[in-house]
């Protein structure tokens, strides 16, 4: 739990009981995201600011430990089933104008695992147990481990970004920023049929991960290497305003730039002239809709996310895990938290107590 800037603790809470329409998850793995780091460092992520202590974590997977009243789903929702979680839950009026039909990621009010956007906050899943509405569960396909299942959420972000671009088959593509999302973008692009994928970053470790995830070429910007020229489709995954000038210059005239990395919510200098003079289409990409299902299918079909995992820590080492994930010198890919093991299923009290 994060209690404030620089203050993260492992707290004890009672094992919750699933209510109507809910299940109790015995969680096994969680992946640390940039928003988790932001809450720990600054007590805020974007415009969401901590008012109360918050359980972090929205990239999680585990097994069903108990099923609450009224839950349907047959064999897919039974005790012991390995699942991941779609972390978004729309709040209030979920109608959208026709032009946004189906784009539920753009609803104005969405509760998200591990988010302080609402008061009370929405606790995340970096815990041994958590109750979850059954509708948010996504059973893992055969052969997909719970560790890999915890990466379905960030892979879904990458898959959604790929779908925000024009047709990619047989195209050359650039990914600027080879952190975990950038490297998963590389994999998603290869899976979508991109002919040639170049990844660029200032960290050699990140570029090694991008190569392992399928990048055909890498550019180490810290060594003075430059971005390729005239790339028709570019994905900006660093979120660094200072990178935008070079990224726009690398985008071909009339090309497409997909902004995946979160840009600051405060004024920041950026060189944007080429956006106009090169008639570039610059599109944002925010979270995902139901692409978590496609991410799971891609992993089932052989997309291997193993190379993006660089560190594993037990839940009790959460503070250290966050520090490593936040350290540019650590050469991190995805830092994973081991939340528990597969032996913690339903106890005799029906509340998922350990046995």
From TrEMBL:
The family assignment reads: Belongs to the zinc-containing alcohol dehydrogenase family.
PANTHER family recorded: SORBITOL DEHYDROGENASE
Q: Which InterPro entries match?
A: ADH-like_C, ADH-like_N, ADH_Zn_CS, GroES-like_sf, NAD(P)-bd_dom_sf
Short name of one Pfam family: ADH_zinc_N
Domain Alcohol dehydrogenase-like C-terminal stretches: 180-298
Q: Does the keyword Metal-binding apply?
A: yes
Where does the record place the Alcohol dehydrogenase-like N-terminal domain? Answer: 19-142
Protein's recorded name: L-idonate 5-dehydrogenase
Q: Which cofactor is recorded for it?
A: Zn(2+)
Ordered alphabetically, the record's keywords are: Metal-binding, Oxidoreductase, Zinc
Task: Report the Gene3D superfamilies cross-referenced here.
Answer: Medium-chain alcohol dehydrogenases, catalytic domain, NAD(P)-binding Rossmann-like Domain
Tell me yes or no: is Metal-binding among this UniProt entry's keywords.
yes
């Amino acid at each position: 739990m994060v209690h404030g800037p620089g203050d993260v603790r492992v707290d004890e809470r009672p094992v919750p009981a699933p209510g109507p329409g809910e299940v109790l998850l015995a969680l096994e793995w969680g992946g640390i995201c940039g928003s988790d780091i932001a809450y720990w460092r600054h007590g805020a992520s974007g415009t969401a600011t901590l008012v109360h202590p918050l359980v972090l974590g929205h990239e999680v997977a585990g097994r069903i430990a108990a099923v609450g009243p009224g839950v349907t789903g047959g064999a897919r929702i039974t005790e012991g089933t390995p699942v991941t979680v779609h972390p978004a839950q729309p709040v209030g009026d979920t109608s959208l104008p026709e032009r946004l039909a189906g784009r539920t990621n753009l609803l104005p009010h969405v509760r998200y695992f591990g988010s302080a956007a609402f008061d009370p906050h929405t606790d995340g899943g970096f815990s041994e147990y958590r109750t979850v509405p059954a509708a948010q569960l996504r059973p893992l396909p055969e052969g997909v481990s719970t560790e890999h299942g915890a990466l379905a959420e960030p892979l879904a972000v990458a898959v959604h970004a790929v779908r925000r671009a024009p047709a990619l088959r047989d195209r050359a593509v650039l990914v600027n920023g080879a952190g975990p999302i950038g490297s998963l973008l590389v994999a998603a692009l290869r899976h979508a049929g991109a002919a040639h994928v170049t990844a660029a970053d200032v960290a050699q470790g990140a570029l090694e991960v991008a190569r392992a995830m399928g990048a055909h070429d890498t550019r180490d910007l810290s060594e003075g290497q430059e971005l390729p020229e005239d790339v028709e489709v570019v994905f900006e995954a660093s979120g660094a305003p200072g990178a935008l000038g070079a990224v726009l210059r690398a985008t071909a005239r009339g090309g497409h730039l997909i902004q995946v990395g979160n840009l600051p919510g405060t004024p920041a200098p950026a060189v944007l002239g080429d956006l106009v003079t090169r008639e570039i289409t610059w599109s944002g990409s925010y979270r995902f809709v139901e692409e978590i299902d496609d991410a799971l299918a891609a992993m089932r079909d052989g997309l291997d996310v193993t190379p993006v995992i660089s560190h594993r820590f037990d839940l009790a080492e959460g503070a250290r895990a966050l520090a490593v994930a936040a350290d540019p010198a650590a050469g991190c890919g995805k830092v994973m938290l081991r939340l528990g093991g597969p032996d913690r299923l339903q106890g005799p009290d029906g509340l998922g107590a350990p046995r």
